[in-house]
Amino acid sequence: MMNQILYAGVIGLFLTLVGTPLLIKLLARKGYGQYIRDDGPREHASKRGTPTMGGIAFILATVAAYFLSKVITGNSPTYSGLLVLGLMVGMGLVGFLDDYIKIVKRRSLGLRAKAKMAGQLIGGIAFAVLALQFPDNQGQTPASTKLSFVQDFGWTIGPVLFVIWALFMILAMSNGVNLTDGLDGLATGASVLVFGAYTFIGVWQFQESCANAMTLTNPSACFEVRDPLDLAIIASALMGSCLGFLWWNTSPAKIFMGDTGSLALGGALAGLAIVSRTELLLALLGGLFVLITMSVVIQVGSFRLTGKRVFRMAPLQHHFELKGWSEVLVVVRFWIIQGICVVVGLGIFYAGWAADK
After folding, report:
1. Which band of pLDDT confidence, cut at 50, 70 and 90, is reported for residue 189?
2. Domain span at residue 324?
3. How large is the C-alpha radius of gyration of the chain?
4. Which of 215, 211, 243, 242 is nearest to 229 (CA)?
5. pLDDT band (50, 70, 90) for residue 45
6. Residue 133 CA to chain centroid, in angstroms?
7. Residue 48 scores a pLDDT above 90
8. Those residues with Cβ within 8 angstroms of residue 2's Cβ, 6 or more apart along the chain or in another chain
């Protein structure tokens, strides 16, 4: 059964390595190039016209990798897996419409703010409501109405508050990845690290699942997660797909993921956190996305309250560019920050399990 994780990652990697250049040619032929802000770093002007909407490549590769791994091993999809994939595709579709209107319709702001928010709300509410359905033989549903850190803890918030909480997570993470996607390879590389962490978490939860309580040395330390192995398969597929895409997205980028990709990745991260019962841990595992989002909140808040800016430009990566850091230097150092967040997050995850033992 564990072979599915390897198959999904390798297939996702292969599909984006081979498929992304084909998508680049198609988008370039259609003239679907990136719009670049005039008030940003001057070095970015050369990126104008680079094909965007590249998220299509790793969305399709992830879905294909997941289902091909099932076909190869003869296993069936699970509700948890399908819900996370559905959320990713749904958020990606909202991002695709936004990109399409920006590029094809030549409307620089893309979707109207209300229309974009409505699309995200519909996708998020559908995911949250469905995640509380489909109990298995042990009565486990994909999500739970309890808050979670390294696993569920005692606070039950009820279905209505759960839907609101899930929506907040989905919107916060999808917009966080969107804000991070401002430099070549930055968001893609950071996402690879977080999906790698969720591959590990899914494997660990599967091995220590309460469904296997009879074979565990300490059943009280087990994880009550409905389909942990399938979550590891999806995380592996996403990791492989993003890694293959990064080959073409790293500096100098041949293609950008666009809102199509950033909203999809954020939705996938939030979905994985919710169904793996690691909701609050995501703030640490995805620490770079949180840091960059907070830089925008601080910048806007400071300007409105005092009329002064804290950073030369927000999001944070552009502040360092305007300080004279090269784009590659910013990206690599931010990857290091993200790597530290992942290591600390996984350490806390393991420590929480060890403490229960």
Report:
1. very high
2. 3-142+150-356
3. 20
4. 211
5. low
6. 23
7. no
8. 203, 229
pLDDT in tens, 131-178: 999 998 888 999 999 999 999 987 899 999 999 999 999 999 999 999
99-109 pLDDT tens trace: 988 887 766 56
Cα–Cα distance between 59 and 12 in angstroms, integer? 10
Report how many domains make up the chain: 1
Residue 52, φ and ψ in degrees, nearest 5 = -125, -170
Per-residue HEC secondary structure of the chain comes to CCHHHHHHHHHHHHHHHHHHHHHHHHHHHHCCECCCCCCCCHHHHHHCCCECCCHHHHHHHHHHHHHHHHHHHCCCCCHHHHHHHHHHHHHHHHHHHHHHHHHCCCCCCCCCHHHHHHHHHHHHHHHHHHHCCCCCCCCCCCCCCEEECCCEEEEECHHHHHHHHHHHHHHHHHHHHHHHCCCCCHHHHHHHHHHHHHHHHHHHHHHCEHHHHHHCCCHHHCECCCCHHHHHHHHHHHHHHHHHHHHHHCCCCCCCCHHHHHHHHHHHHHHHHHHCCCCCCHHHHCHHHHHHHHHHHHHHHHHHHHCCCCCCCCCHHHHHHHCCCCHHHHHHHHHHHHHHHHHHHHHHHHHHHHHHC
Identity of residue 288: L
Q: pLDDT averaged over the chain?
A: 91
Burial class of 147 by CB neighbour count within 10 A (0 to 12, 13 to 18, 19+) = middle
Return d(Cα 72, Cα 27) in angstroms, integer.
32
What size, in residues, is the chain?
Answer: 357
Give the separation between CA 265 and CA 89, rounded to whole angstroms. 9
How far apart (Å, rounded) are the C-alpha atoms in residues 124 and 107? 26
Measure the N-to-C terminal CA separation of the chain; round to a whole number of Å.
26
Chain segment 299-308, per-residue pLDDT in tens = 999 999 998 9
| Cross-strand partners of 33 | 51
